[in-house]
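Trying the structure run again after the queue cleared.
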Amino acid sequence: MQSDAELVRLARAGRITAYEELVRRWAARITGLCHARVKRAHLAEELAQETLLRGFRALDSLTDPDRFGPWLCGIALRACLDWLKAKQNAQVPFSVLGSEYDPDDSLHRAAQRDGTVEAELERDEERRQIMAEVEALPEDCRTVVLLYYYQDLTYRDLAKLLGVSSATVNARLTKARALLRTHLSHCRR
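Done. Tokens:
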């Protein structure tokens, strides 16, 4: 198996398949990092794609091919910050849709049409609730949880990626799981 540095060198030489392999290796981690920053799964995927595209375009600017992963994570963080800044300037209130639009009413009618829709809505609501709780975790815990579950990384791999010890990764995951158990048990009461 080729190292990231070898793949970077090949990609710089015009071998697109080398960058495709880098994308396969890093996409899930970048998506998890983006999710931790912007707190929205669907948006995290878009930002991860943006990151990978920016990385490809800027590959010649990478001075140390051995540091491809941390370099790409830096691009991901910049993409997230760019989006967060743009979001602050482009928020549109729900009220602009007009008073005739009531999302709760349309969901209620859909559930009445088909009993399976109701069950699916309940599962969707449960998933949204879990993700909302994950997104509400402190950033250090949220980042570790999302990276850990987006890709089966070992504690050692997470520690290396985040620049902390394996013990710190363990502590953050333990804390995050405890917080999630507590918050979700209160929600179900």
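Residues 94-102 have pLDDT under 50 and may be disordered. Worth checking whether this holds up in the mutant runs.
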